[in-house]
Amino acid sequence: MKNILFMLIAFSISAIAQITITNTDISNNLSVGKSVTIRETEAPANIDIGSPGGGNNWDFSGLSGSEVFILTSVDPASSPYIGEFPGATITTYAEQDIEGDLSQIWFYSNLNNGLNDMGNAVVIDSTQGNVITTKNNPAALEFQLPLTYNSNWTQSYTSTLYLNGTPFINNNFSLSTVVDAYGIMTLPGGSSYEALRVREATTVLGETDVYYLFVSKSGAQVSLFASDPNPPLSGTIALEGYSYNGPFTITSIEQSAGSTDEYYLAQNYPNPFNPRTVISWQSPVSGWQTLKVYDLMGREVATLVDEFKSAGNYEVNFDASKLSSGTYFYTLQAGNFSQTKKLILIK
Hints:
- The protein has 2 domains: 2-250; 264-345, Immunoglobulin-like, CATH 2.60.40.3080.
- The chain is 7% helix and 57% strand.
- It has helices at residues 2-17, 23-29; strands at residues 34-41, 45-48, 53-59, 67-74, 90-98, 101-110, 114-124, 132-144, 152-163, 166-186, 192-204, 207-215, 221-226, 236-245, 249-250, 264-265, 276-283, 287-294, 300-309, 312-319, 326-334, 337-345.
- The chain has a 12-stranded antiparallel β-barrel. A 4-stranded antiparallel β-sheet has the order 19-18-21-22, with no helix packed on it.
- A hairpin with a 2-residue loop joins strand 9 (152-163) and strand 10 (166-186).
- The chain starts with a helix and ends with a strand.
């Protein structure tokens, strides 16, 4: 009798943890206006990846991110490089540090029989006027949908890099992907999600890289980049880096769900802009906060926020229709924290 009860309990736990991620889930997570804070680390680590099959309990609560950026879903039609990616129905935007240079990146995808990565466009602040574009032909299949345990696919595609529209690098990629496990994952902060484990092997120029993606229906996920081109399928593996994020959420001038653990001021989007743009930030503590805009002479031209705010994620719209074209700066002041970033108005 005890064995029967144990089997029933084990079956119940496994059944709950086995999920299916659908086209609707992806569409909801990446709908315009939603964003997610991604934390990543490019440093060696050792992580237990569990084992193939069900019943896994992945404990990622000890992860930390040395680099932080916000990925926001925007209207593809309003993005500056949509003309380079006909058929794109999803566009996400992020500001990231690339080799020490602040960069703006637009990612283009579609949902044709899966989540397909069409490519991206990058503008590096130190080389304003130059656009680096990556185009995948055909689009790289990130997820076969619906995505569930035992889903698998292979694909070959060519990725071409362009500088201001001129191609200069071609690479041929081969992918082999399988969903080989399911279970419960726990992220830093203690939140837990039912998740699938996706194992992808990517071969380019004769070298293979393997990464594991633990993904939930809400978009919360963990990416582990193995240092070994043929890592074991179970137990602890060596990593060269990882990233993680919670679910996608809608942010606004009101406090969003959840709190943050560090200050962060995002690059305004779009930038350059005419005449409206969005500035977002996050604060780990409650307190008086100000967000002001200045011209090149240091004169204050707009006060966007000057009030007490609880800890959380925020964004505000800036309408510069009464200002002249040019370079401006916006500064967030919250307690002892102060950060300034540049925005460009082009009329």
